[in-house]
Amino acid sequence: MKNKKQTLSLCMIVKNEEQFIKDCLESVKDSVDQIVILDTGSTDRTLEIVKNYNAEIHYFDWCDDFAKARNESIKFATSDWILWMDADERLSPESGVILRNELSTIQKPVIYQVQINNKTSDAASAYLSTAYRLFKNNFGIGFKGRIHEQLGFDSKFSKPEIRRSGVIIDHLGYAVDDNLKSQKNIRNLKLLKTMTSENPNDAYAHFTLGQQYNLNEEFALAIEHFEKAVKLKQFEKTMTASLHNVLAESYFKSGDYKSAKENADRSIKAVKDQVGGYYMLYRIADKNELYNEAILAVDSMIKNGILLQKNGWQISTDVIIDTDKLNYTKAVLLEKSSDHYGAFQVLYELANGEKVNEEVLNKAIQLALNLSQIHEATDLLKKLIKFNPDRLDAIDTLGTIFIKLQNFQQAIEVYEGLHEKSPDNEKVSRRLAGLYLKVGQESKASKLLQLAV
């Protein structure tokens, strides 16, 4: 049973977040009843900004422990439910209604798992992960872990029920500028080392430290800690699949492609319906010039990506890659494998899709001309010129095709347009004059040639 009277507190810990905090609060302000801000030492405009959102501001002396800070923040929550976010996150526009609908009147500990879309500098892709971000207040649920903190529960209460939510939070952390990213990496590595030394038999501690080493491109150290996490055998299958994927990535980046493939295969064996494992198989096959294997992996990425968008994630961390980008990758692989016509078919379908992409059009035109697909090349050139009217080379190529087809009137129309854009181009003027002569318009040809002299 849902009840509109159920209330929701947003709890955040912040320090010098003026770059991000406004957009975060804008995304969630209409969905929460209370905003709790725990500041750990801001010296910029962060607190000035949050005051505009009627936030309650509290202060905390930073002690290198995110869980302690999180637990302090939720002490001030007065609502029935608690949502926690970071400043570089945004509640997706469609998630506001979904979030409110999750707030049931149930009187027992409940934790909701939400989807995190980790944005990258490449707008066509994102790393997908899950996180426990929404939970019932006053039922002994709190945080544990010095960094990359997780939710735990007080043994005085019953074990929380875990539910999956349709809420999506966009995370900008992987798309920030290099200086800010470097500062966070230094801080995180220090805390992760401390956490791992304090908890040497905790697989999650080794997993998160391995991830940090992987980000820092210290792959030997990343592999060391990922392998320790594997040996501890503490993860259920979705986390196991994620672990093998990141381990595969570290082996791949260190040049051990055999071990990379073994771990990608283990990930897929644990959870078949995913993208990340097949992404690693594609990278390994492409690197080793096994293009047919790479194509099969890309096909699986396309199929599972569609399922993932429809049915939700299947592993703890996964990757989302735009379907058009994957199809373009498939076309490149087909061309590498000498299947030029197959590559052209994929590109031609992409070029006629909803998203117009100049790179795709260029590649499709090149293949169409090489394969003597004149009709298709003509259509694609028209699309390219419409998309970018300043592509004089494309206009010239289209005119040349019409000349070869002896369609002189259409060629004249093309070169008249080109001459208007480039009146001082002698080559264009002479070609247009020649076309005028072909159709018996000697006076136009003569006038044009006189101007060209």
Brief account:
The chain has helices at 21-28, 46-50, 66-74, 95-101, 178-198, 203-215, 219-232, 237-253, 257-270, 276-287, 291-311, 323-336, 340-351, 358-370, 374-387, 392-404, 408-421, 426-438, 442-452, and strands at residues 8-14, 34-39, 56-59, 81-84, 89-91, 110-119, 125-136, 141-144, 150-153, 161-171, 317-321. With 453 residues, it is an alpha/beta fold.
Give an overview in words.
- The protein has 453 residues and is of the alpha/beta class.
- Among the domains are: 8-174, Spore Coat Polysaccharide Biosynthesis Protein SpsA, Chain A (Alpha-Beta Complex), CATH 3.90.550.10; 334-452, Serine Threonine Protein Phosphatase 5, Tetratricopeptide repeat (Alpha Horseshoe), CATH 1.25.40.10.
- 54% of the residues lie in helices and 15% in strands.
- Strands 1, 2, 3, 4, 5, 6, 7, 10 and 11 form a 9-stranded mixed β-sheet that branches. A two-stranded antiparallel ribbon has the order 8-9.
